[in-house]
Amino acid sequence: MAENTREITLDEAKKLYNSSEEAKVFLLSKFTKEELEGKHIPSQEEFNKFFEENILSQIDYSKTRFLDNNGNVSKTPTSRIQLNNSNNECLFDYDYDQENQRFWYSYDRVYYILQTQFALRDDDRHILMKRLVEKHFNLQVCQPHFSFI
Known about the structure:
This protein is an alpha+beta fold. The chain has helices at 10-16, 21-30, 33-36, 44-54, 107-118, 122-137; strands spanning 65-67, 80-84, 90-95, 102-106, 145-147.
């Protein structure tokens, strides 16, 4: 007698996942928790591509400002830079001074867009943003943070 079996699909597994503890245990042997719960952690390449196309493209370099240590606009170039969009709204505020190295990004204009697209957990977002900041802003030491700037 031939056995009539087939592999369960991810869509079928998602529907069964919360039906019982036994189903969870079995399904977790075949799929990751992220897959079953519908969470997708993008690759660094996916994240960077989305960031480049949807966030970095908003920067209006003619609106770049140099800031002093108190956050006031400086008439001379400093290590602290604010990058704005065409509406003169801050997207990024970063300082590449080795003593004060930091990177802040706007909650409303950057973080919200990333969360809407990817629904990342904090630790995943931190890792992806840190690598992105290292690549695009050449800041190797700091941990990026969102801010209500």
